[in-house]
Amino acid sequence: MNANSELSFPAPAHWIDGKAVPFSGPVIEVVNPATEAVIATVPAGTAEDVDRAVAAATAAFPAWAATDPAERAAVVRRIAAGLQARSEEIAATISADMGAPISFARMGQAGLPVMAAEATVSVVADFPWTEEIANSLVVREPIGVVGAITPWNFPLQQVITKVVPALLAGNTVVLKPSEVAPLAARILAEVTAEAGVPAGVFNVVHGTGPVVGEAIAGHPGIDMVSFTGSTRAGKRVSELASATVKKVALELGGKSANIILRDADLKAAVTRGLSSAWINSGQVCGAYTRMLVPAELHDEVVELLREEAASYTVGDPTEESTLLGPLASETQRARVASYIERGVADGATVVVGGPGRPEGLETGAYVRPTVFADVDPDSVIAREEIFGPVLVVIPYSDDDHAVQIANSTDYGLNGAVFGETGHAMAIAKRMRAGQIDVNGPQMNLLAPFGGYKQSGNGREMGRFGLEEFLETKAIQR
C-alpha cells in the first residue's frame, strides 16, 4: 500500500485563538507534485485574517510572557513528544504535499523537527535570563508577537526552528506556512493544543506571500518577523517591516561551495558532496551546489560522480527505494529545467542528467538529476541559486583561487571543505559563510545556523536561535 494512500485532510481552516476557524471564502489547492492531483485545500487568507490572529496573539502575550521558563520548556517537550507520536502521519503528509521520498520524509521531514525541538529546549535551564554587569541588572525579555513566514522545502522543520525558540522565549506567534506545502502546520497546531499551549499563543493563517505574508511583515501589532525563503522575498519582508522598525531575522538563499583539497579523500568527498547537492531533490538552501576541485583532479572527480550518481533512484516518493522524488511544484520544475537548459547553452559539460524528464516519468514535477563539469565560475549556473538536483563542478588552480571562487557569489549561507584536518580548517576560516562543514561532520543542532551577505541575518538553532527572539534590558541601580 502506498504510504499516503489513506491520508485525509480536514476542511480548510485557519488556527486562531486555540482552535480551527472555519473558512468559507476562496481556497488554495494543494497539489501532490508526483501525481498532479489536488489532495487538499487551505484558505486563501486575507489581511483581516491576520488582524484576527494578531489580536489573539496580543491578548495571550502577557500571561505567556509571565510564565516561568521551566514551564514553557515543559510545554515544548510535550510538543516534541506529540510530534513524535504522529511522525508517520507527518512523513506521509509532507511526502504527499511536497514530494519528499517517504524514507527521507521519515528521517528529515518528520524526525529532524523533533530533534531540533529537543535540542533547543535543552538550553533553557542554563540560559542567562538575567545577569549582573557592574551596577546593572541585564534582563532578557520576550519581544512580543512574532510573525513567522516559512518555506515549502522543509515545511515542518523550518516552522519548528522559529516557533519553538519563540515560544520558549515567551513570545506569541502568528505563522504563515507556505501555501505549496501547508498541511503539516495543521498537525502542529493540534499538537500544540494537546501539549497545553494556551489559546492565542500559537496561530496559523494560511495564504499567499503577497497577501498574508505582506500583511504579517507590515503589521503594526507584530513586533518581530522571522522569515525563511528566497533572497528576493526576504528583501520585500525587510522593506515592509521597516515602516514599523520591527526586528527582522532572515534565512535566505545559498550557493554553497564544497572545496575538495588535494589532500582529501576523494571518494568520501564526492560521495558526501553529491548527497548534499541532491538531498530533498536539491531543494535545500544549504546544499553543496558548487564542487570546487583541483584542476588536475577534475576528470577523476567527474568519473567518481558519474559512478556515484548511478545509485540515485528517481521515482514515486511513496516507494521505499526512491531516493529522489519530484520537485515540490510544477512551477519549481519549470524553473530548474530552465537552469539546466541554460547550463547546456552556456557550454557546460553534462556528466549525468541534462534537459528533459527522467525516463518513464512524464507525469509529475520531475527533472533529471544533473551534474555539470568544467563549469565557468562566473556562469549563471555557478552563481544563481537553482534549488533543484543540479551540481556544478568547477576546477581551481590553488588554495587562494578556491577561496576566491567560494566567496565570489552574493550568498554566504554555508559551505564545506574536505582535506587534511589542519589544512581544511585553515581554508574554512577564510570562507565567508555562516556555517562550514569540515570532512562531513555530524549535524550539530545546537550550533548557530544563518548567513553572511545576501543569505540573510540572524541565527537559528540552540542558544543563538533563542537569543533572536529576546529583547535585552539594562536596569541601572
Can you walk me through this structure?
With 477 residues, this protein is α/β, with parallel strands linked by helices. It has 15 helices and 20 strands. It has a seven-stranded mixed sheet, sandwiched between helices. A six-stranded mixed sheet has the order 9-8-7-10-11-19, with helices on both faces. Strand 8, helix 6 and strand 9 form a beta-alpha-beta unit. It is globular and about 65 Å long. The protein starts with 12 loop residues before the first strand and ends with a strand. The mean pLDDT is 97.
Strand arrangement, major sheet: 14-15-16-13-12-17-18
What distance separates the N and C termini?
A: 68 Å
Main sheet makeup: 7 strands, mixed
Helix percentage range: 25-40%
Structural class: alpha/beta
Number of helices: 15
Q: How many beta-strand elements?
A: 20
Average residue pLDDT: 97
Low-confidence stretches: none
Proportion of β residues? Answer: 15-25%
C-alpha Rg, in Å?
22 Å
What is the approximate shape? globular
List the helices and strands and how they pair.
Blueprint: E1 13-16, E2 19-22, E3 27-31, E4 38-43, H1 47-66, H2 69-85, H3 87-98, H4 102-121, E5 130-133, E6 136-142, E7 145-149, H5 157-168, E8 172-176, H6 183-195, E9 202-204, H7 209-218, E10 224-228, H8 231-241, E11 247-251, E12 257-260, H9 266-278, E13 290-294, H10 298-309, H11 330-345, E14 349-352, E15 370-373, H12 380-383, E16 390-396, H13 399-406, E17 414-418, H14 421-428, E18 435-438, E19 456-457, H15 462-467, E20 470-476
Parallel strand pairs: 7-8, 7-10, 8-9, 10-11, 12-13, 12-17, 13-16, 15-16, 17-18
Antiparallel strand pairs: 1-2, 3-4, 5-6, 6-20, 11-19, 14-15
Helix pairs in contact: 2-4, 2-6, 3-4, 4-5, 7-8, 9-10
